[in-house]
Amino acid sequence: MTRKRSIERGEAWRDRGMLFAASADGKAELIAQCQLAMLEAMRARPDRTGTTDDAAELGRKYADGGKWRGTVSKLLSLRKVIEAVGSAKSARAHRHRGLLTVWRIIDDARADAEIARLRQFIAALSPEKTSPTAATVGLANEGGNY
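Predicted structure:
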């Protein structure tokens, strides 16, 4: 097996594992809330960029450590809504200035369609949650499988 093929297989297994872990832990609503918050923040910026910090309240720590958060951007990337364009250091104190990927919206129309889809999905699951960022922290800190 070539090095390139080995890397591709490793990335494919990683991606499947991330998706499985997120779905197995019942985090679909939480991930959708974070995706919505991230896309709305990115859509509001002229350069259409952002990080997963945009989907979190900067002063709060996720009770479960937030290890599931990579799935937020990974799913949007697989759907060709965003693309990686660089890196930045996190502004979240609990991340200790760790590196994050900087993402950019590929196409505004596709991002708008994804925002609409996410809003419908979230409304169908929990119509009482109105603020994506507040909801993500609330869900993550409720305990249990979050």
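Summary: DSSP finds five helices and three strands in the chain.
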